[in-house]
Amino acid sequence: MDKKISIVDVANALNISKTTVSFVLNGRGKEKRISDALSNKVMAFIEEVGFKPNPIAKGLRTGKVNNISLVMDNIANPFFADVAKAIEERAYEQGFCVIYSTMKNLVGSKKLIEALRDNHADACIIAAPINVKGEVITALVKDKFPIIMFDHYLNGIDCNYVGIDNKSSAFNATRHLIDMGYKSVALITFANAETQIQDRIDGYNSALKEKKLKSHIKKVIATQNENQIMESLMKFFEKFDMINAVLFGSANLCKIGLKVIKRLGLAIPYDIAIITFDDCEFFEYYNTPITAIAQPVASIADNIFNLLLPVPKYIKNTITQKITLPAHLNIRESSKSLIIPVHRNI
Amino acid sequence: MDKKISIVDVANALNISKTTVSFVLNGRGKEKRISDALSNKVMAFIEEVGFKPNPIAKGLRTGKVNNISLVMDNIANPFFADVAKAIEERAYEQGFCVIYSTMKNLVGSKKLIEALRDNHADACIIAAPINVKGEVITALVKDKFPIIMFDHYLNGIDCNYVGIDNKSSAFNATRHLIDMGYKSVALITFANAETQIQDRIDGYNSALKEKKLKSHIKKVIATQNENQIMESLMKFFEKFDMINAVLFGSANLCKIGLKVIKRLGLAIPYDIAIITFDDCEFFEYYNTPITAIAQPVASIADNIFNLLLPVPKYIKNTITQKITLPAHLNIRESSKSLIIPVHRNI
DNA sequence: CTGAAAGCGCTAACAC
DNA sequence: GTGTTAGCGCTTTCAG
Questions:
Q1: Cβ of A25 < 7 Å from strand C?
Q2: In angstroms, how far is D13 C1' from B22 CA?
Q3: What is the pLDDT of residues A197-208, one digit of tens each?
């Protein structure tokens, strides 16, 4: 890379001081009452030679690096990939770069904090992976490091959060299945203490209670491998063979469930109807397209930035907010009404 | 965020100079013949107070920021998401952060170069989006900015590259279809000049030529929307109704193709067999699992890093390498033999 | 073996 | 209105 031109070079070339250049560069010309003529001359010269202030030097000086750290379990999960894309768009609009990281390599506790400080990110957007201890987040909050959680938060942790209304989403989905004629609706979810899981369980339960139906909840161990989970679902379906509809608590769970259903030779939706949390292309294109609860990715990204941007560096916001967005039920064939064929036969 | 401790603080606390601290910090104690006793004392103190050198300051001084820029079209594309994940793992192992960006916002030309310099990434790994002009890459190469392309390169551009052997992959896939009994094999791909596309066409053609079969190539306009592409594929299938197998040139194309096939009421693989480039979960879980040419993600990431790591900053490697990896054909039901049932009937 | 000091490129108080 | 100058925290040359 050729030697880069610095602010001193432009100052010298123009026979002015670098302060002046710095001021016009940062749009403080007016404020500092630098003549328009000079300002324009500087701007023109900068444009001509393609000078760009060195962000590292700027960062060292100002303590702000225009980086946002995005921490997620797994970028290969479609929901996260979509969020990443949306966040990146917003970030670049605002002049931030996105430093992406999972926390696989940072497992444990203090590693995350150190990493964030090391990266010198100005803020952190995080969907805490399962293995992240609450104290890590607490430590960051206590440090007044700007942090925003999404997808789910950790119970008892006072931290900014943007997510969907899990309870009513689960309620609506369960209700939809009941309305379509399915009376034995199961919920298959993970056995973690993450808040969104409990909310989904609550929503599911209250929809059933309203119609005085029985609940069938299967909690899968998140750390098990796919085969173990399949095994366990297989047993569940065999034991409760009256079940004719399932609400899956996550996209991955649903995918495994579909394999199991296929193996059991059940037809969707006639033998078993399906709705899942988290929409993705997969569900839309599946042979029997799967009804899914879509998280409003764009809106999540927008809200995260609304929370982030007003926080000036060093004047840290101490008021945390939890923002809950509505999710959208994309109704597809997998939850088609059992009732319609009956009408047709009449 | 509390005030951070600096190298001067630890030097003062220990009554030594910051030079000494710096040396032991960078593992140059032995070389500088600093006593083990002192070294250990420094290390212990650093550990105790949790001091971490400020990477920004370090970056300003050394010109190296331990960031790698990863540029891809779309993180929401599963293949890219997988690569991103693999690259991130390698990067963090080596102490790099990954700055992720699409180039949506950087469309055009010089923007990318500027952005890279702005980010002060040490290197760039790039799967050039369709709209990226060759001259951008050339400019970076000319600047001796460490850059590695993957997935595809641009014709006539001398640049490091890691990708699969598209020609033989296409050859093998086509050959597999022929061997399975399908004699009218079509290739559906994009109408771009990207190198990997031409290679795939070549491989496809030579497999057909070897068996003296006729080729049917449909080139889709990449900038068309999904409906337009569906329309165009629909016409293609209707016009050439003797086609009983298709090789798709990309995962997205295949997904659209599957929709079309469904709409036409064709059964896979009996009416039409399918193989696609780029494997992903979707194809594995699809009702009729789709045979796919899987790019060796882990190996691609490894090779990218092998190319990247030996390049010391400022001593730029002027020899460019193109590394071609074998892809793996994951054979699934969508290309099941037409011949077996015949044998069974005997 | 260790320390003083220069400087990476930039910002911003403080002169003039 | 504009220039001088002191750092931000670190590395590294050069003297001792």
A1: yes
A2: 14
A3: 899 999 999 999
